[in-house]
Fold this protein.
Amino acid sequence: MKYADFKLTQMKNWDLLRAYFRSGEVDMAFVMSPLAMDMFRKKPNFRWIGLMHRDGNALAVNDLIKERINLPKKRINRKPDAQVAKTLKELYKEDNSSPTQIGMPHLLSLGALFI
């Protein structure tokens, strides 16, 4: 890898990246784990899948939600639990309006909440 010649290209969405990778015109792609697993399931012709990071996905919460949940100061102590889902449900009942919208980068993104 001392003399590797890389060209980085940012794609507009995950499906376009998948298609570009499948076209054979690109040698490597950085994708979400669920998308990589789905691509491998449909056509298992990968040579190697490497672990790029260990932090996983994140959920950003607004100040209203943050006030109602117990969020540990240290990130290492923040583990998935039902606090956010319960808070979203409470806010929905209090507001009596439309459900909370959650943005997802792709349908294969895991951990999405729907109420």
Confidence is low (pLDDT under 50) at residues 111-115. The chain has two domains: 1-56, 57-115. The chain is about 30% helix and 0% strand. The CA atoms of residues 104 and 112 lie 7 Å apart.
